[in-house]
Design brief:
By secondary structure, this protein is of the alpha/beta class. It has three domains: about 60 residues, Arc Repressor Mutant, subunit A, CATH 1.10.10; about 140 residues, 2-Layer Sandwich (Nucleotidyltransferase, domain 5); about 160 residues, 2-Layer Sandwich (Nucleotidyltransferase, domain 5), CATH 3.30.420.40. Helix content is about 40%, strand content about 20%. It has 13 helices and 14 strands. A five-stranded mixed sheet has the order 5-4-3-6-9, with helices on both faces. Strand 3 and strand 4 form a beta hairpin. Helix 5 crosses helix 12, helix 8 packs across helix 9 and helix 9 packs across helix 10. The radius of gyration is 23 Å and the shape is globular. It starts with 7 loop residues before the first helix and ends with a helix. About 45% of the residues are buried. Bound molecules: zinc ion. Zinc ion binds next to loops.
């Protein structure tokens, strides 16, 4: 797989992702001259982003000096902002958590109060990790609502009163570094990739009160023209029983109005189940309660019909389910698989994996860290870093 770019950022990415382990590998991968590659590698070593270590196998002559990414060249701040709590972490440049702290908040208190608390927690974890503010290379923030990615401003977030158009990056001015803000689903999607530099195509579907989808193309978040890609909660579906349900967006029969967490609770109450929250329904299903199981499986089938269309269109390697309703596990997956395998084209479905997230608590923080790291180490940013 020859790449056309031999920019310092592209060379760094090849080493980070394990595609190249020596200058000779980089020459072979990029097609650039030996001199060009060597000069850029020397720059990256001077900036401490790459380091030399050990010798590789010789294919005749002197064995090559191996290169590796120095994930300790700096740190990033990762903020996973929820409706009732926030988690702040400091990670190294491979998203390894060095220190983390969680704290209850009320997102409805508005941006000034909540972000002042985040600022306090960030200084606390930085000190715990033994880092100074000047070590912070980038900040990544996930929030529970739509965000204009280019400006880091929430856009009419339904469950974040007072946050519309608020410039979140400004709250991290003391670090004098880039700040990346995105919605929690995109951030969790990155976190589910788990490792920097994955090249898979993945859909991460969060089923909570609402339903959203993080679209990962070639290991990177795909955001679309305005940043709203993956907003699958308002795709039209036809309920099996032919009823019409009004969605909070004003349209009828949206996926989330039929199969989201709120819908699951409504249908369970209508069926006379002793439940007061979506979590109660999920727990009843986990205990094997027949009617609760059937409701969760039905929700899975409805979600599966939409996912089947997405599979035909996008042909992902994997679909990962996350969010409160995904905690139901097996019955939800059974409904989803049934619909996806019945309605997807065989070629797209053949090797498709559909799983439940195994670390939903962690993916928000890891994803926020990866978003910050990817931003800091993208090709243009690396050129700027080397110029400094
Ligand atoms: Zn809707």
């Amino acid at each position: 797989m020859a790449s056309t770019s031999a920019s310092p950022g592209a060379l760094l990415r090849h080493v980070r992702t394990g595609r190249a382990r020596s200058r000779a590998d980089l020459v072979a991968l990029t097609g650039a001259s030996r001199n060009t590659v060597s000069a850029r590698v020397d720059q990256l070593i001077a900036a401490r982003l790459l380091e030399e270590g050990g010798r590789g196998w010789s294919t005749g002559g002197r064995p090559p000096t191996l290169l590796r990414f120095n994930s300790e060249a700096g740190c990033v701040l990762a903020v996973d902002l929820g409706v009732t709590s926030v988690d702040v972490a400091v990670t190294d440049l491979s998203a390894r958590i060095l220190a983390t702290v969680g704290h209850p908040i009320d997102i409805g208190d508005g941006p000034e109060i909540v972000l002042a608390e985040v600022d306090r927690l960030a200084q606390l974890v930085l000190a715990q990790a033994g880092h100074a503010p000047a070590d912070v290379c980038a900040v990544g923030v996930g929030v529970p609502g739509p965000v204009e990615f280019s400006t880091g401003r929430p856009s009419h977030p339904p469950i974040m009163p007072g946050w519309h158009d608020y410039p979140i990056p400004g709250a991290f001015g003391r670090y004098e570094c880039p700040v990346y803000v995105d919605n929690d689903v995109n951030v969790m999607a990155l976190g589910e990739m788990g490792i920097a530099g994955s090249v898979q195509d993945v859909l991460v579907v969060k089923v909570g009160t609402g339903i959203g989808c993080g679209v990962i193309v070639d290991g990177r978040v795909y955001r679309g023209a305005q940043g709203s890609a993956g907003d699958i909660g308002h795709i039209y579906v036809q309920p099996a029983d032919g009823r019409t349900v009004l969605c909070r967006c004003g349209n009828e029969n949206c996926l989330e109005a039929i199969a989201g967490g709120g819908a699951l609770l409504r249908d369970a109450v209508d069926a006379g189940l002793p439940v007061a929250s979506t979590r109660d329904v999920v727990e009843l299903a986990a205990q094997g309660d027949g009617p609760a199981l059937e409701l969760v499986r039905d929700a899975g089938r409805t979600i599966g019909t939409v996912l089947a269309a997405l599979v035909n269109f996008f042909n992902p390697h994997r679909i990962v389910m996350t969010g409160g309703v995904a905690q139901a596990g097996a019955p939800l997956l059974a409904g989803i698989r049934e619909a996806v395998y019945r309605r997807s084209m065989p070629l797209a479905a053949r090797a498709l994996e559909i799983t439940v997230s195994d670390a939903p608590e962690l993916s928000g923080r890891i994803g926020a860290a990866l978003m910050a790291i990817e931003g800091y180490l993208d090709e243009e940013s690396v050129v700027e870093t080397l110029a400094r």
